């Protein structure tokens, strides 16, 4: 029997920023591989085994290949797995790499979007990304390499 992997976004803060689908997946997953940036209140909602995989900036971390191999092995063993990431799994979260590896391995998976801090945190503060007459576009970029050119937009959000 083949399992399934869910690439789940935990949102930009505590449990109140989870989507209902993310909550359901956390309650049903047998194993939850999670990043260190996930809020402890979100982790407390998981019913299955919690496995920290240590993805946080430039600190100690589990190599991406090891995480991907573990996702595939657990799914092949018939387990339901949640890969829990802060924000949205497809925004600077390596969700695209994991989805590609799962697809190549023939593992069923589903992406459960989360509210990215690039949008949610600013909205929660009452700061619009767009505003009629002032800003009609926005871009999100990583701030890791100051030598790289920044995208052109009326509003620029730099993450990590």
TrEMBL record:
GO molecular function annotation: uroporphyrin-III C-methyltransferase activity
Transmembrane residue ranges: none
An individual GO BP term: siroheme biosynthetic process
UniProtKB keywords: Methyltransferase, Porphyrin biosynthesis, S-adenosyl-L-methionine, Transferase
Keyword hit for Transferase: yes
Domain Tetrapyrrole methylase: 4-160
Pfam families, alphabetized: TP_methylase
Top-level division of the source organism's lineage: Bacteria
InterPro entries referenced in this protein's UniProt entry, alphabetically: 4pyrrol_Mease, 4pyrrol_Methylase_sf, 4pyrrole_Mease_sub1, 4pyrrole_Mease_sub2, CobA/CysG_C, Siro_Cobalamin_biosynth, Uropor_MeTrfase_CS
EC number per UniProt: 2.1.1.107
Enzyme type, top EC level: transferase
CDD domains assigned: SUMT
Keyword Transferase appears in the UniProt entry: yes
Family: Belongs to the precorrin methyltransferase family.
Descriptive protein name: uroporphyrinogen-III C-methyltransferase
Phylogenetic placement of the source organism: Bacteria, Thermotogati, Deinococcota, Deinococci, Thermales
This protein's encoding gene: cobA
